[in-house]
Amino acid sequence: MITRLILAALLGLVAASAAAHDRPTAPAVVQTADAATASAIAVVDAFHEALRSGEADAVLALLSEDVVVLETGVAERSREEYASHHLPADMAFAAATTDEVRRRAAWVEGDIAWILTEGRTTGTFNDRPVNSLNAETMILHRRADGWRIRHIHWSSRNAR
Fold this sequence. Notes:
The structure is a single chain. Strand 5 and strand 6 form a beta hairpin. Helices cover about 40% and strands about 40% of the residues. The longest helix is centred in the first third of the chain and has 19 residues, at about 1-20. It has helices spanning about 1-20, 35-55, 55-60, 80-85, 85-95; strands at about 65-70, 75, 95-110, 110-125, 130-145, 145-160. It has about 160 residues and is α+β, with helices and mostly antiparallel strands. It is globular. Helix 2 (about 35-55) crosses helix 5. A six-stranded mixed sheet has the order 2-1-6-5-4-3.
């Protein structure tokens, strides 16, 4: 059941992204009165803020030990593996660029949350201009001490 929900959500995100191409659209950011959904979204936002601020300990505190991060065709299968590979570059990139959330959808079912975000990143990184459209999927698991990110999948392409 959960696999089908994730697949349906991802297919919907891909279809919406393909239909939108690079046309500017009004943000469709989730507005919710649901405390569980709002708190899961807050963890995703805190993760991005910690990346931007270069706070590695704060980034890692929001990840479960067994997190799986999929980025540019590479899988990192633990918090420690992410910390020793992509985290430094992700923090440098986030500090040098600006993200705009264009669309976000979120669901909570029991102790699992799915946060799907579409956005645009602009700026300059390593002396190269950045102008990309992004899709992000985060799956969170609620523990006794709060939400932790169990899975991240990032994809992007150059904006036209």
